[in-house]
Design brief:
The complex is a heterodimer of chains A (114) and B (109). Chain A has 114 residues and is an all-beta fold. Helices cover 0% and strands 49% of the residues of chain A. In chain A, strands 2, 4, 5, 6, 9, 10 and 11 form a seven-stranded mixed sheet that branches. Chain B is built from no helices and eleven strands. In chain B, the strands form two sheets. In chain B, strands 2, 4, 5, 9, 10 and 11 form a six-stranded mixed sheet that branches. Chain B has a five-stranded antiparallel sheet with strand order 1-3-8-7-6, with no helix packed on it. The radius of gyration of chain B is 13 Å and the shape is globular. Classes of the chains: A mainly beta (114), B mainly beta (109).
């Protein structure tokens, strides 16, 4: 099925560990982004990409790294996990970076850092 | 003042009632998005509007560009409509969506 696929759905990490959250889309969307959602707060943008080879920081980029080597994939790397990074992470894509297109969201990754 | 404001924050209604959720914004936009998130669930895009009105099943979304206001209506509400409804706007000069705080809707049987 066409859409945005996020893996894993759940993950528990120890403080200091690193990991990569995977995001893949098969809709040939130019724009991809990562958000985190914390209880009682809205979605906050971590990083985004407007095309292969182009990435930029969002509102809360510290502690996270991204790359976009292909149109399809946009992995999010946690360099050294901290309890403050416990959150639900969503990947979203859109056909173009200009705003007049709808967004498709992945099902989310629930991350706990202990 | 937030650039995107939703009202009400919380709404509880009986099954069958007509529901209205409002979204006001203060910036020039290229599009307005309504999204739905069920408890513990993913985020689903319901509508994207740049003018007028859209309808999908029991959901209707309207936008008034001059008044910078949008409404999401649910007709014949059902307990499965219980979710958080989020309004977000996109601006061509900015790569980011500007998010409203969400409206938590509970429909009681």
């Amino acid at each position: 099925n066409a859409g945005v696929t996020q893996t894993p759905k759940f993950q528990v990490l120890k403080t200091g560990q690193s990991m990569t959250l995977q995001c893949a889309q098969d809709m040939n969307h130019e724009y991809m982004s990562w958000y985190r959602q914390d209880p009682g707060m809205g979605l906050r943008l971590i990083h985004y990409s407007v095309g292969a080879g182009i990435t930029d920081q969002g509102e809360v980029p510290n502690g996270y790294n991204v790359s976009r080597s292909t149109t399809e994939d946009f992995p999010l790397r946690l360099l050294s996990a901290a309890p403050s990074q416990t959150s639900v992470y969503f990947c979203a894509s859109s056909p173009r970076w200009t705003g007049s297109y709808g967004y498709t969201f992945g099902s989310g990754t629930r991350l706990t850092v202990v | 003042k937030n650039e995107v404001e939703q009202s009400p924050q919380n709404l509880t209604a009986q099954e069958g009632e007509f529901i209205t959720i409002n979204c006001s914004y203060s910036v020039g936009i290229s599009a307005l998005h309504w999204l739905q998130q069920h408890p513990g669930g993913g985020i689903v895009s319901l509508f994207m509007l740049s003018s007028g009105k859209k309808k999908h099943g029991r959901l209707i979304a309207t936008i008034n560009i001059q008044e910078k206001h949008s409404s999401l209506h649910i007709t014949a509400s059902h307990p499965r409509d219980s979710a958080v409804y989020i309004c977000a706007v996109s601006i061509d000069s900015n790569y980011q969506l500007i998010w409203g705080a969400g409206t938590k809707l509970i429909i009681k049987p």
